[in-house]
Amino acid sequence: YTGPVGSGAGEAAVSFEDVGGLDGYIQSLKEMVVLPLVYPEVYAGVGARAPRGVLFHGPPGTGKTLLARALAQSCAAHGGGQEVAFFMRRGADCLSKWVGEAERQLRALFEQARAWQPSIIFFDELDGLAPARSARQDQVHTSVVATLLALLDGAGERGQVVVIGATNRPDAIDAALRRPGRFDREMRFALPGPEARRRILRIHSRAWPAPLPPADEDAAVARTQGWGGADIAALCSEAALAAVRRTVPQIYESREKLHVDPRRIAVGPDDVREA
Ligand code: ATP
C-alpha cells in the first residue's frame, strides 16, 4: 500500500491529545506546516514563507514519531474541507538491494505526494536513508542521497509538499540535507521536564479506573527525572500488568478462560511503585 495514511499505517490512530509536553511544537507545526498547505494564498499574500522541510531530532522515545502520527491524523481531519495527504516511510525501508530501485521508489513517492497535494512526506529514521558521508557504507547510499537532494530541490515541481524527517542523531545525516530549501527548520526534542512528565504520565494512565492521588503522582514525576516519554509509557504499562497480577492472580493458573471485568483492576500507587 503506497497511498497516503491517516495515521501510522496499521497502527491505532493517535491525536495531539495523546502527545504530552509538546504543545509548543504542536502549535508550530499547525502554523508552519498545516495552515500554509491549506491556505497558501493567505501566507503568500502576507509574504510569509512556509518551510519546505522540517527536521525532528532528539533522543529515542521523546515523541518524534508519535507527533508525526498525530499530525497525520490532524491533517486527515482538518477542517475547511481541505485534507492534507500524509505519506510516512521508515528511512531504511526505502533502501533496496536492487541497484536503482530505492531511487525509483523515492521518485515515485514524491510524484505521488505531488499528485495528492497538499501533502506531507514523513521520513522516520532519516539517517538510515541519507547517512552522513563518513557513515556511508557504499556507493548505493551516495546515489540515494543525491536523488533525495534533487527531489527536495525540485522546488517548482514539488508543489505543495512539505517533507519532515526524524532522527536521533542530526549529525549522522548528510549535512547537505540541512541547507536552506531542504530541511530548513529544526525541532529539537529534549527529554521532558517535570510538567511534561506529569502530562505524559496522565496520558498513559487515562485508562486506569482512578487517577493517581496527587502525592503519588508527584512522587512518580520526581522519580522519572531523565526519562523519555517512551520510558514513562512503559512504566504505566508495567504498573497495569502488576495490577492484573495482584488483582486476578488466578489468571496465570486457570486452564479455562476467566471472565475478568477490567474495571476490577484498579491500578494504583503500589503498582506504580512496583513497576
Ligand atoms: P525514536 O527516535 O526511537 O524513533 P521517537 O522519539 O520517535 O523515538 P516515539 O516512537 O514517538 O519516539 O515514542 C515511543 C512511544 O513512547 C510512543 O508511542 C508513546 O507511547 C510514548 N511517548 C513518547 N513521547 C511521548 C510524549 N511526549 N507523550 C506521550 N507519549 C509519548
Task: Give a short synopsis of this structure.
With 275 residues, this protein is α/β, with parallel strands linked by helices.
Structure in words:
- 43% of the residues lie in helices and 10% in strands.
- With 275 residues, the chain is of the alpha/beta class.
- The chain has a 5-stranded parallel β-sheet with strand order 2-3-4-1-5.
- The radius of gyration is 22 Å and the shape is elongated.
- The two termini are 39 Å apart.
- The site of adenosine-5'-triphosphate has 19 residues, from helix 3, helix 8 and helix 10.
- Adenosine-5'-triphosphate (ATP) is lined by residues 19-22, 60-66, 166, 168, 189, 200, 203, 229-230, 233.
- GO terms for molecular function: ATP binding; ATP hydrolysis activity; chromatin binding; histone binding.
- Belongs to the AAA ATPase family.
- Keywords: ATP-binding, Bromodomain, Nucleotide-binding.
- This is TAT-binding protein-like protein 7, AAA ATPase.
Secondary structure elements and their pairing?
Layout: H1 23-38, H2 40-45, E1 53-57, H3 64-76, E2 85-90, H4 101-115, E3 119-124, H5 126-129, H6 139-153, H7 155-158, E4 161-167, E5 185-188, H8 194-204, H9 214-223, H10 229-247, H11 269-274
Parallel strand pairs: 1-4, 1-5, 2-3, 3-4
Bound molecules: adenosine-5'-triphosphate (ATP).
Adenosine-5'-triphosphate binds at residues 19-22, 60-66, 166, 168, 189, 200, 203, 229-230, 233.
Protein name: TAT-binding protein-like protein 7, AAA ATPase
Family: Belongs to the AAA ATPase family.
